[in-house]
């Protein structure tokens, strides 16, 4: 093997490692972000249940800040993930039914915001 071919091989491998162009890598990142967001949202929402001042009145609500950071930082494509997190937290933390008023309001607000962006 000549030194020139070995250098090409080294540079080709380093270029692949520096700039992954695989759709699988980007999909894995998206799923990892989604999983971390869901777990963080559910745990923070659960903490607000423990820190309630009175019945159903909380002094702070950090899940909204996490969701806002996700939507601003990664785009509105993650809005269904936010909807899923709110839905799961309602079921797991507050024992609410599937069709609750806040769920329907959230769906309506996401639809209205996406229509406003297109116009």
Task: Explain what the structure shows.
- The structure is a single chain.
- This protein has 119 residues and is mainly alpha-helical.
- It has one domain (3-118).
- The chain has five helices and two strands, in the order H-H-E-E-H-H-H.
- It has helices spanning 3-18, 23-50, 62-74, 79-94, 101-118, and strands spanning 52-54, 57-58.
- A hairpin with a 2-residue loop joins strand 1 and strand 2.
- The radius of gyration is 22 Å and the shape is globular.
- It starts with a helix and ends with a helix.
- The mean pLDDT is 78.
Itemize the secondary structure elements and their pairings:
Layout: H1 3-18, H2 23-50, E1 52-54, E2 57-58, H3 62-74, H4 79-94, H5 101-118
Antiparallel strand pairs: 1-2
Helix pairs in contact: 2-3, 2-4, 4-5
Please describe the structure with a list of short key phrases separated by commas or semicolons.
119 residues; 5 helices; two-stranded antiparallel ribbon; 4% strand; mainly alpha
Strands, count: 2
Question: What's the main sheet like?
Answer: 2 strands, antiparallel
Mean pLDDT: 78
The tally of helices reads 5
Q: Report helical residue fraction.
A: over 70%
State the strand order across the main sheet.
Answer: 1-2
What is the terminal-to-terminal distance? 61 Å
Q: Tell the overall outline.
A: globular
List the uncertain runs: none
Order of helices and strands: HHEEHHH
Proportion in β-strands: under 5%
Radius of gyration: 22 Å
The quaternary state of the protein chains shown equals single chain
How many structural domains in the coordinates? 1
